[in-house]
Amino acid sequence: MNEKKKRDREERQNIVLWRQPLITLQYFSLEILVILKDWTSKLWHRQNIVVSCLLLLAVLIATYYVEGAHQQYVQRIEKQFLLYAYWIGLGILSSVGLGTGLHTFLLYLGPHIASVTLAAYECNSVNFPEPPYPDQIICPDQEGIEGSVSLWSIISKVRIEACMWGVGTAIGELPPYFMARAARLSGAEPDDEEYQEFEEMLEHAEAAQDFASRAKLAVQNLVQKVGFFGILACASIPNPLFDLAGITCGHFLVPFWTFFGATLIGKAIIKMHIQKIFVIITFSKHIVEQMVAFIGAVPGIGPSLQKPFQEYLEAQRQKLHHRSEMGTPQGENWLSWMFEKLVIAMVCYFILSIINSMAQSYAKRIQQRIKSEEKTK
């Protein structure tokens, strides 16, 4: 039976766009139809909830488009809602790693905090005009006094974005928890590699010798024995094994609010402030100047590597002081082009991973159907 499951899993894993493009696209389309059918059926059996949501949506649309004195409040709420939704969405994507394990902190939140830090030290103020902040950062007309910007003022400036991103990462940790909890309650075996690896780890706990296995067992024991504070400790530090904590909590039926409360506090408050402080210190004015000087000191290639960074930093200073009409230096074009292509590549790979995953889900449906037909014969 185990060999049969292993063969089925290997067969599903071969259904990817770069190996079987036609079958993958076909199964992906069929899986979408199955999901739409399931959701339509669920919504049909919950007509009261659907009608209530539609009425609420109609009221919100009418409030949004009807002119009146309330429009200033509507616009303010809309702006805050979109800001929160943007960062929470990026946080959720960070938990799934954009299909590659790469966090959106490195692509979005980290650069945003770094930009605010550089601008704060250049402008001697964090009172950037709104708008265009946060879409664009420019110095206020009345700049502050040299040395008036503190670490705490920069932390306060980016607190909302960072905390919302942390809330998103906490929400993104819920699927492993719910998957493991449902599997434990139903007795079914989900087709999830991490969950299967977790069960194998429990079976062979005493024989674990390598460092990775011992680290996973340590996380599992910490969460299982210490409970809320064990989850809080795992969530409060950058921890690539935290998915295992979610699976452990689900498998041992830890209450939802114990798991989610500890995860939310750890990721959105404690861990987020650790990451913010690290980025702000790293991109403080004197540290950046030292890093650029260090790049220039590299024998042979140092000056050629240093020049684009110097031009990029100078371009940012010009933009902050409303002097962007002088043109965009080549260094900024090069760095911006590299960053944009990296983001596009990550998003494309994320989309490909979704297509492959949904195609493999449909292949599993076919295998389960064949297995059930064999049992009935």
UniProtKB/TrEMBL annotation:
The chain crosses the membrane at residues 49-66, 86-109, 222-238, 244-265, 277-298, 342-363. Keywords: Membrane, Transmembrane, Transmembrane helix. This is Vacuole membrane protein 1.
